[in-house]
Write a structure and sequence with these properties.
The complex is a heterodimer of chains A (about 325) and B (about 210).
Chain A lengths: L3 H10 L13 E4 L14 E3 L5 E3 L8 E2 L14 H4 L13 H9 L6 E6 L3 H9 L1 H10 L1 H26 L3 E5 L12 H7 L1 H13 L4 E5 L8 H7 L3 E5 L5 H8 L4 E6 L1 H4 L6 H15 L4 E5 L11 H16 L1
Parallel strand pairs in A: 1-5, 5-6, 6-7, 7-8, 8-9, 9-10
Antiparallel strand pairs in A: 2-3, 3-4
Chain B lengths: L2 H10 L6 H10 L4 H20 L5 H22 L9 E6 L7 H12 L3 E4 L6 H10 L3 E7 L6 H13 L5 E5 L5 H6 L4 E2 L3 H12 L1
Parallel strand pairs in B: 1-2, 1-3, 3-4, 4-5
Helix pairs in contact in B: 1-2, 1-3, 2-4, 3-4, 3-9, 4-5, 5-9, 6-7
The chains are: A alpha/beta (about 325), B alpha/beta (about 210).
Chain lengths: ~325, ~210
Amino acid sequence: MLTKRQNLMETIKGGNPDRFVKQYEAFAMMMKTPITRAKPPIGGEIVNEWGVTTRWPEGQLGAFPVHDDEHIVVKDITKWKDTVKAPNVEHPEEDWATAIAEANAVDRTEQYVTAFVAPGIFENVHYLMSMEEALMAFYEEPESMHELIDYLVEYELKLAKEFIDHIHPDAIFHHDDWGSQINSFMSPDMFEEFFVPAYKKIYGYYKENGVELVIHHSDSYGANLVPAMIEMGIDIWQGVMTTNNVPELIKKYGGQITFMGDIDSGVIDFPEWTQENIAEKVETACRRCGKLYFIPGASQGLNISSFPGVYEATDAEIDKMTQEMF
Amino acid sequence: MSKIQEVKEKVEIGKTKLVPGLVQEALDEGNAPGEILQAMVESMSVVGEKFSSGEIFVPEMLIAAKAMSKGVDVLRPLMAGDTSASLGTCIIGTVAGDLHDIGKNLVSMMIESAGFTMVDLGVDVPAEKFVEAVKENENVTLVACSGLLTTTMPALKEAVQTIKASGLDVKVIVGGAPVTPEYATEIGADGFAPDAGSAAVKAKELVA
């Protein structure tokens, strides 16, 4: 029996996996580093490392940046330098002790020690200035947007260096949502101009420094961005939604990139979830996507579910599909 | 090319800095404000169609709507009290428990560009508040409710049914990622739209 890590590698290289990769099983996520993003508690509010006020209201599935006049960080993109200050990423060694101990405890033949980065460059931009203003600024103030993105990339490279120096990750799991359920937020051309060079630098740096695997999360439509994802160096697109026609993407791009998802969290992960519904969605995904270049899983961007039991129930159904298809 | 034609073209490609001047020039040439407004509404209708078909993306739609809005600013003083071009007032909001406002804002912008006066109730709007807003505002013809999460679908149903049960003479349009045309019908909505461009088309159709 292959290790989880070997099995994932066989899957993404088009080899001979002996079972489906079960969601995030091959990734040991390192969430307790001193440079992991700050997140408000449920019902709470924080000002994050970049000065963005974020709230997680009770009853919601996630946190939201606050973009009223009082809280928005970048009010005028041409003056972003006045208000955007990159957080310090250098921390005393003792602050890394927990993360280093956790990384050392991982059997790296079994799992990838995986560094986690969120929000990504695009998300950071719209956290700082609101989605609408950010998207318009790509047209109206492109030079300032390029400058701001370059600044965020510099920060991410420093972040990467800290991860690499301290926990020597085998993989990076990086969030940046690039679309809605039905389309990418921006055209592939605009994406190519603003984001491909940025991510080529970031993901290139990780790979030059011993990181084997780049997993990128965008739980959205993004089929039109797959060539750009490949160019950036993404090995696995996690969060691929059913609206993308994943079987077609596998046929077209399998071998260059692997697709993780094809089970939309919204249709399995809700308070009245049932095992039968999850079974149906998992079976559909596994049968239509097949054994190679595909990892079945919910589109959720971590190894958790919004409602208790859904993640484990999904794993159980993937095991059943392994028994049927392998 | 006529000035009106130029206004139309520049709105469509989102030339926010040029449109106000062109609208003024169109007025100076003797074109009626209503005629210029109509030309911009038509541009936005093209923009909406292109967005729905995937030909253009959110940034292009946003700058076109902004360009139109700048043009409307020039016309507004000349059209005070003239409601002939208006399709009425549209109340919009996300339903109780749903805080996702980006899609709702895009829909609001496109429905406004189609000729409605918008009253945006924001996010997390209880069902009764939609009803109150219909009563409190003049000439309300449409209510637009959205929900992004599967978990807020019951609140969408409640909003639609509360508005319908109030007996007020308004149409209700719904949308949001988990909403399907079948679900919209099932909960008693008058219309459904899958995206912002289609929402503007459907909104006009519902109040025609």
